[in-house]
Structure formats: structure tokens, C-alpha cells
Amino acid sequence: MSNTFQVDLRGIVDLLSHHLYASPRVYVRELLQNAVDAITATASEDGRVEITTGADALRVSDNGIGLTEAQVHELLATIGRSSKRDELGFARHEFLGQFGIGLLSCFLVADEIRVHTRRAGAPAVLWTGYSDGRYEVRPGEDREPGTTVTLLPRRGVETLLSGATVKELAELYGSLLPVTVEVDGVPVTSGELPWKTGREAYCQRVFGFTPFDVVEINVPEAGLTGAAFVLPTAVNPAARGGHRVYLKRMLLAENIEGLLPEWAFFARCVVDSTELRPTASREALYEDGLLDDVRDAIADQLRGWLVRLAATDPRRLARFLGVHHLGVKALALHDDEMLRLVEQWWPMETNMGRVTLAEFRERHGVIRYAATTDEFHQLSAVAAAQDIGLINGGYVYDADIIERLATVDRTVRVERLEPTDLTTRFSSLDAETELRLRPFLAVAQRRLDKLGCEVVIRAYDPATVPALYLVSRAAAFHDEFTTSRDKADDLWGGVLDALSQVAAPERPQLVLNHRNPLVRRVLGLADPELAGLAVESLYGQALMLGHHPIRPADAALLNTSFLGLLNRAVTAEEQK
Ligand SMILES: Nc1ncnc2c1ncn2[C@@H]1O[C@H](COP(=O)(O)OP(=O)(O)OP(=O)(O)O)[C@@H](O)[C@H]1O
């Protein structure tokens, strides 16, 4: 037995209003669109849509193609049926609509919809649809070819059909349409694409900012023109900005995502396309190959703008990078041109001031960097004193960018500097001095053993630095490891213990500087207790100099060594 599906119109309208459309305000867009499509079907040059508002009803009249009685039955009363698809079910290119559900959106604001329509050469028809699913068709009063849709407002939503709201919505969605649209006798269409003329003023009015620059966009295969406005201030790269998209000059939505690749978060676009397709809610673009191509083409045009800026106006480019460097750097991780741009123009922090990677290479040959800001702080002063240029690769993307540079250009030499690499550059002491200092070293080592630190004496510049605390990557890992072990419960602690046997730690080193005059005096102290206190306070000072974390054991040591030294100084003064 074959049956036909029944449709519960209330259920469908509920589905549309709660799950498809973002707001009932879209009903104006759907009505406008039907009117424009009906005019397109006549191929007339003189299309007009007249909207009149009033307390009793809203009327939308067009001089479009109109419908015969048979079409009224077929198209208006059949959900999902549309005259805008071809025999194979594909959307016909010239129309805005395609899904056959748009008219239903009127039930979001009205309980009764009347369509008074006439196709040239056929009698006029009046169709009345009710939100409970009934409809009636009867002969209509004679009229010019075209259609008038009348909505009788539902109680409670009258403001959505008020003159002011309808004018605002008609202007929002339809101001660029190629037909004349009037609301209560006042035209809302201007015809011109406003971003073609006063671009800055348009950006200010629509997006609320004065653009840093405007990039013209053209993607002929999608019949797309538009403008990308470069934001004058930094934005969170994770916050995806929306774009204003028109399809065949009808506003699709003001906040469309996914038109640009993620890295281009510094631009807001307005575009009009004849070929891109909407989703059924008409609030997003349909993801297809064409949208991919459009995204790539716009990305190319933005990239081209950046490269041109570098060539013609480097100061302006520097200003741009000052604001949007994060986005550009993110892009440099997979785009060679952007990588070159960062190399040439983005000044990085080094121990010799801010310089670009290109300048750094020219000066030092090798791009030497510390992978974290902590490592950089440990090393920068000492490296500078030895004329070793060092870049702080600790900022977001910087270390990765440096490494990538070496992979795309074989002539670039990159070296990651480890704290312990520096000790190998420090001079060892002569054998005789080493021998003489052994008893001191033994005292010092005993004092710092409990902190897991090894004491060594070397001679290095700058002589003003008395001691350095150097942590190798392996030792830093081990430190974190033991801290977690101390905090972990038994079960997890057991797991960590097992792992710790695999990680052979290199101990952190306190490297006393034999060139420092105060250190030399400390090394000559006869009193082992005073020597111990001095080593402990040098340890504390070196920790702070290198921005190392101060653990509770370190804080306790700092405290006792400071008080011990103070006690000594006061006692000495009292005994004078
Ligand atoms: N003003 C009008 N003049 C002539 N025909 C109309 C008019 N409004 C609606 N129609 C007819 O009714 C059909 C259904 O309209 P509806 O708005 O529900 O869907 P659609 O415009 O085809 O597609 P979409 O759901 O994408 O808007 C249309 O395909 C069209 O044939």
C-alpha cells in the first residue's frame, strides 16, 4: 500500500525558527529575494519592489513573472518545491532562492499569508495560507502581472513588521539589489557598490574602524569583487572575525566565517559574489571547491599586498608588523614568502638590541638562539660579553621560524645555544690555582650538595658577574621531575620513580667567576663557615640573575645565608 507523507506545518515552522534561521527578522530577506527572483524571471530592466507597512498588514509587491493557478498549487503549497531548480534538481544560476522553503519563514511573524498573483496571459489568483497548515485558492481581483504578498501580523510580534523595522531590514539586506526597492514610498536601494568609492568611510560606517589599509579583492571565477580592510589594532588571532558577504548583491549575512584562511585574521572583508552558494539557512557559505578556491585567491591577494608593501614602503610594513606580527609569524611557519618577510623585517630580541634575522646573520654569520626566554635570560649578558650574539627564541613562533629558515635555505646556519655550551667556552684555571682552590671547592660543594648543584670555578667575562647558575635542558627536566615526584601520591610517584631511572640528569652548575674581584677574595677566605655563607649567597644571587625559579629549599638557604652574613658584619662592627 502506498501512502503520502503528511507535513505538520507548525512543526516545520518551529524547526525553521529554532534551528535554521538565526532570527525571525530574516523573513524580509526571504520576501525580497522571491520578489527579485520573480523580476529576474521576466528579464525586465525595470524591476520594482514596493513594500508598504501598516498596523493591519505588511505588503510586498513586485512586477515580476507572477504565478498561474496551477503553479500556485504546485509551488506555494508544496514545501521544498521551487521553480528555481532545473530538471536535475540543481539550483538555477540566475536566482537567489533554490530550496523552496523561504516563504515559510513568513510564518515566523504571521499566522496568515496571502499571495495575490497574476502571470501574463492568465487570470489572477489569490492564495491564502494559514500557519495551521490549511490553504485556500480562489480567483483574485484583476491586476498587472506580478505578485503581492500580504502578511497579517501575529499578536506579539507586531514590531517586527513595523515601518521602522521593515525599512531597516530592507535596507540592510537589499540596499545593493539591482532593482528598485521602496519602503512606504522611500527608496532603500542605491545600486552602487559603496566599497568601490568611499572605501575608508564605508569601513568606518560598517565595521567601526578606520582601516590601516584597503586591499581590493577580485576573484573572477566566482564573480567576486570586494575589499579587505586591514585592522589598525591587534586582535586575538583565535577570535575568527566575520565578513560581510553579498550574493548577487543581496546581503547573505554580516558575520560570515571561513571566507579567509585563519592566518588572515588581521583583515575584515566585504565581498559580493555571483557564484558562491549559501546554505539553506542563508546565514553561511556552502563549503565546496569554489569556496576553497576563493579562500586561496583572497589569501594570495593579501599576501601580494604584504610583499608589495615590503618592496615599496618598508616603514609602513614595520608599522603593520608591530600590530599584527603574530598572524604573520604564524603564516611564516608554512609560507616561504612570509618567512622571508619576517626574516627581513621583523626585529627580534637579541642580547645586542632588537635586530632582524637578516641583519643578525650578516653580523654574526650563524643564527644563534636560546629556545626559551628563561634560557635567554640566563645566557644573554655572558654571551654578549664574549661577543656571542644571541636571539631570544622564546616568543611565540620565533624558535620555529628560525629553525624553518634553515630548512628552506641551505645557506642559513642555525645553532641553538644551551646554557651548558657556555661553560665549554669559559677558560679553565691553571693547574696550580686549581690545586690551591680544592679545599674551598670541597667546602662549597658540601654546602650546595643538598640542593643538587655542582660548584665549578672558571674565568669568564664579564668580570662584573660573580657567578652563573647554568641549567642544561636535561637538568631542567630532572628538576621538574623531582618537583612532580615530591607532589605526587604513592601510585603516581611509583611510576615517576621508575621513569626517573631512565633520565640520567646532568646536575645544574654554579660557575664562580675567577675574574670577579669579590669572588677572588671569597676564594681566599680562611674561615670555612664564612666561605660557606658566601657561596650560598652567590648561589642565591645567581638564581635571581638568571630568572630561575626559587624553590622552598632555595628560599630557606637565601634566608639563612643573608642572616648569617648580616650577623657576621654586625659582630665585626661591634668588636671594633
Ligand atoms: N513573489 C513571487 N513571485 C513569483 N513566484 C513566487 C514569489 N514568491 C514565491 N514564489 C514561488 O514560490 C516558490 C517557493 O518560494 P520559496 O520562497 O518558498 O522558495 P524558493 O524561493 O524557491 O527557495 P528558497 O527556499 O531558497 O527561498 C518559488 O520557487 C517561486 O516559484
UniProtKB/TrEMBL annotation:
GO terms for molecular function: ATP binding; ATP hydrolysis activity; ATP-dependent protein folding chaperone; unfolded protein binding. Pfam families: HATPase_c. Transmembrane segments: none annotated. ATP binds at E30, N34, D62, T147. Residues 19-157 form the Histidine kinase/HSP90-like ATPase domain. Keywords: ATP-binding, Chaperone, Nucleotide-binding. The keyword Acyltransferase does not apply. The keyword Ligase does not apply. SMART domains: HATPase_c. Belongs to the heat shock protein 90 family. This is Molecular chaperone HtpG.
